[in-house]
Design brief:
This protein is an alpha/beta fold and 495 residues long. The protein is globular, with a radius of gyration of 29 Å. It folds into 3 domains: 265 residues, Rossmann fold (3-Layer(aba) Sandwich); 125 residues, Orthogonal Bundle (Isoleucyl-tRNA Synthetase, Domain 1), CATH 1.10.730; 54 residues, no CATH class. It has a 4-stranded parallel sheet, sandwiched between helices. It has a 4-stranded antiparallel sheet with strand order 5-6-7-8. Strands 12-11-13 form a 3-stranded mixed sheet. It is 47% helix and 14% strand. Strand 11 and strand 12 form a beta hairpin.
Length: 495
């Protein structure tokens, strides 16, 4: 089946085609780098990482652009509050952004332009919009005049400009500054004391937020490109403002062939908010949750669907991830160098258990691909991987000799790496998975004490001195030690 994607502008699922054969141009709105990234950012960039991975796996050459908004009201406010130079704030948060994305196994985009690198381009676009009477100069900057292109209003949200006009009652006073209409938005902001500024034909100032993405996407891709992505909250006003600016400047429509928007993340049923005390930065959550587990929790939902992040969701992700890793590790240990036999032809109707199992796994691989071709349906794709882990586990019991086992191990390894690894991005590297765990330094500090207590405990149990054995158990518990009694004797570890 062909790849189908849900286009926000057309409000339906459509076949995916590209402007240049075999090549995808994709622009995704990046972060405003005034602080650490949060869980909402993780959702967005994992979603588009998944899309990026599947497009490349499908044979496309993806040219992926993701910007940094490095001048903005929030950055300026953070600079004023902290006394730190705004450029230092930007550089530090860009560095931590990459650390967070790397932790979540997000592939790098091809380009990461910064807004401040494109101010001259923004000025050129604004000047052109003024000349074409799509924008006007006010006493506090330059504004885009929305009524100059009413046919472009509401392309992503379905809002009617007539309804908005009626609801506004013609008011302009409450919009601030020199706006002619409450719908108009800033292209250039007049300089304020203490703010970073750039020279322009309309006096010193800085660009508005919306014009930044227009300048960067036009510079990289020209008047039109294949995919424009971002969070659901960016549809209005940001992305609709981009449509106004770009299409009125270039005279070409549509700006993007497909608009893709990921869903929100809630925390325990409530919108994530600092005021509610449920605001999670990526740095906070990966201290408590394995980044691969967090990634699985987020991809185990369709990218357009909202996610309610809660303890149960993370527990389920942890359990499922452990199942996948267990099977993957078994496959890695079987897939050793040496002679291996050819596997039989997959056939679900075969009486040969090996051929039948391979046939079922082939169907699951096909189902995985069909799910991803259906608007990147990662939830169904994850379900196929989880079903495959059971079948792969069974498969690895069927080898009759070392040659069979090596072949089966390599097959299982490849199956999981092509799906859970390369596409879903939830597998660690083989070296990391097979590495011997490092000894906890805390264990070394108390090892002698614990071993002595275990000897005492064994003696007490042999003498049936249960009160003494219980007292030693309590001592071990106070040290944070968990004891497991085995046929080879007691084993211990830290809680």
């Amino acid at each position: 089946m062909p790849l189908r994607v849900h286009d926000t502008r057309r409000r339906e699922k459509v076949d995916f085609t590209t402007q240049s054969p075999g090549r995808v141009s994709m622009y995704v709105c990046g972060v405003t780098v005034y602080d650490h990234c949060h869980l909402g950012h993780a959702r967005c960039y994992i979603a588009f990482d998944l899309i990026h991975r599947w497009l490349e796996a499908s044979g496309y050459d993806v040219d992926y652009v993701q910007n940094f908004t490095d001048i903005d009201d929030k950055i300026i406010l953070r600079s004023i509050e902290s006394g730190e130079d705004w450029r230092d704030i930007v550089d530090r948060n860009i560095a931590t952004y990459f650390e967070d994305m790397d932790a979540l196994n997000i592939l790098r985009a091809d380009h990461y332009p910064r807004c401040t690198e494109y101010v001259d381009s923004m000025i050129h676009i604004i000047d052109d919009l003024i000349q074409k009477e799509h924008a006007y100069v006010a006493d506090d900057g330059v504004y885009f005049h929305v009524d100059s292109a009413p046919e472009k209003y509401g392309q992503l949200t379905g809002q009617s400009i007539d309804a908005v006009r009626q609801g506004a009652g013609g008011r302009v006073n409450e919009t601030g500054g020199g706006k002619r209409d409450h719908k108009d938005f800033a292209l250039w902001k007049q300089a304020k004391p203490g703010e970073p500024v750039w020279p322009s034909p309309w006096g010193e100032g800085r660009p508005g937020w919306h014009i930044e993405c227009t300048a960067m996407s036009l510079d990289h891709f020209g008047a039109s490109f294949d995919i424009h992505g971002g969070g659901h909250d960016l549809r209005f006003p940001h992305h609709e403002a981009e449509i106004f600016q770009s299409e009125c400047h270039t005279g070409h429509a549509p700006l993007a062939g497909y608009w893709l928007h990921n869903g929100f993340v809630n925390i325990d049923g409530e919108k994530m908010s600092k005021s509610l005390g449920n605001f999670w930065t990526i740095r906070d959550i990966v201290q408590k949750v394995d980044p691969f587990v967090l990634r699985l929790a987020l991809v185990n939902a369709h990218y357009r669907s909202p996610i309610d992040m809660n303890e149960q969701l993370l527990k389920d992700a942890q359990r499922n991830h452990s199942r996948i890793l267990q099977v993957y590790e078994s496959a890695l240990r079987l897939a050793v160098d040496g002679r291996q036999h050819a596997l039989p032809t997959p056939d679900t109707a075969s009486s040969d258990p090996l051929a039948k199992s391979l046939g079922l796994l082939e169907r699951l691989a096909e189902g995985f691909a069909q799910a991803m071709d259906d608007d990147f349906n990662s939830r169904d794709a994850v379900a196929k991987v989880l079903a495959a882990t059971k079948q792969l586990q069974h498969l690895m019991t069927l080898g009759t000799d070392d040659g069979d086992k090596r072949a089966i191990g390599n097959y299982a390894k490849q199956w999981l790496e092509e799906t859970a690894g390369n596409i879903l991005g939830i597998l660690p590297s083989p070296d990391l998975l097979l590495a011997e765990p490092e000894e906890d330094p805390r264990k070394a500090e108390i090892a002698d004490q614990v071993e002595a207590l275990l000897v005492e405990r064994s003696d007490a149990r042999a003498d049936k001195d249960w009160p003494r054995a219980d007292a030693i158990r309590d001592q071990l518990s106070e040290l944070g030690v968990v004891v497991t009694d085995t046929a080879e004797g007691p084993k211990w570890d830290l809680e």
